[in-house]
Write a structure and sequence with these properties.
Layout (H helix, E strand, L loop, with lengths): L2 E4 L2 E8 L4 E5 L11 H8 L3 E5 L16 H14 L5 E6 L1 H12 L4 E7 L13 H9 L5 H12 L2 H6 L1 H11 L6 H12 L14 E6 L8 H9 L4 E5 L6 H4 L1 H13 L2
Parallel strand pairs: 3-4, 3-5, 5-6, 6-7, 7-8
Antiparallel strand pairs: 1-2, 2-4
Length: about 270
Amino acid sequence: MPKVSVNGVNLYYEIHGSGEPIVLFMGLGGNIAIWDIELINALAERFKVIIFDNRGTGRSDMPDEEYSIELFADDSAALLDALGIESAYILGASMGGMTAQEFALKYPRKCRKLILCCTLAGGENSVPPTGEALAILMSVKDLSPEEGTRAMRPAAFTKRFIETNGDWLEEKLKREIAYPTPPHAFERHLQAAMTFDAYDRLPRISCPTLVMTGVEDILIPARNSEILAQRIPGAKLILFDNSAHGFMSERRDGVLAAIFQFIEEG
């Protein structure tokens, strides 16, 4: 299994495809199996796609110590250094979008272009999850990984998508729970996300930025993406209708088209 040692931990990573590098930052407590396989394969037809398990998840080390979004960004930068990659396109989803913001701010020379998906700036200027989403989050606390993943679906996807993609979701579930995130690591991820705040620093992001989300997202409401696009100089905003937090799967073709156009334009 490919791993590199960075900042005192071993990170598991995978590389798909060839070409210019694009690095994907995963969200809260998630391992690389959460990425949409079809999306990864499509990206790999044009780019070298690097995906990895954050510390605390998947096949990476899981120390029970304080985590922070800045630490995740430092891990990501060290991973690129270990792979001999001077700079890359950076895509972050959910908490991974927070890490991507921090990465772009702290390592501007390593970030060619920035893609922020279903994420937020953090702090008091952010819009919190809806009451429905909070209730779902509370309900999964003591469930098994399999039960919790199923219970979280209404917070991640629209009802329409769940009803018409049952087999796809079940196959995805099998991959995700093969390497479950232990409770201590999930709590460390949650603490890191809750203490993140880039709102005042966003105008310092200097690379071209694309912000995307699903209009029906109840975990990280779409207003958060609007705030990001307003605060980051020159940022482009795309809101996808008929989709929620999992819009990268629900509206995969549109998302891919937006990514390709954004990266390939001057």
